[in-house]
Amino acid sequence: MSRFENMSDVEDVTQLFTSCSELRTVSATSFDNSRIKKYASVPYGCSKLVGGTDGFVPSPSYGFVPSPSSGASVLKLGTGGVLTDPESDIRTWLDATLFANGGLKIGFAKADAAGREVLAAGKLYASAKYNAIQATPWASFGKSVKAVAIAADASRLANVNLNYWFYGCNALASVSGMANLRGVARMDHTFNSCSALAELDLRGMSPASLSSLPYTFGACTSLAKIMVDAD
Fold first, then answer.
1. Among the three residues 90, 117, 147, which one is the final residue of a domain in this structure?
2. Which of 157, 155, 230, 148 lies closest to 191 in space, CA to CA?
3. Mind listing the pLDDT tens digit for each residue in 24-47?
4. Is residue 82 located within the same domain as residue 99?
5. Are 153 and 181 in contact (CB under 8 A)?
6. Are residues 101 and 157 in the same domain?
7. What are the residues whose beta carbons fall under 8 Å from the beta carbon of 112, sequence distance 6 or more?
8. What is the pTM of this model?
């Protein structure tokens, strides 16, 4: 929604954006949420919504993702807010394409789909601290993901969060290109329930920025080998 600042006098935002599962951006140059008195279920079910910065000083700044119970306090710009000023939008989006053969391509460049059946395609904010499996473009087809390839151009990113990226992809057996990811800070539930994954190559991916790893490998019942650099 553009020109969201025109709603600054509103007092009741009950269920505003509820279940807007594809909503990624709410644009505004300013907004005063001090008059809001009713705000139940705001914003609920907006798992792809990312905005503002999340309090990292100095930079980088990470995209703020609201929880289902955040309330009207997130209707603001800046730290802890979901509103984004189009003139100062620092978000960087990756493109993802899942093909019918189970191959998932992730990178800056859009995957060549000529002559190939596509199950899902879309964008995700590389540095967002997503908090639900539904945040990824391939979430509805997670059980079809068999092989993930992260493109070399992803190395242009300075910072990445992998929260919930492959959660529930229980047919995933191959992951390549993890070395192309820089500044990975969070891997919350990244491979949770990837029960077919037996081996994972993390060589070339620095752990220096990692700060959060809850359930990264939860229910990975076949995972027997994780390869990392010697240091």
1. 90
2. 148
3. 999 999 998 999 999 999 999 999
4. no
5. no
6. yes
7. none
8. 0.93
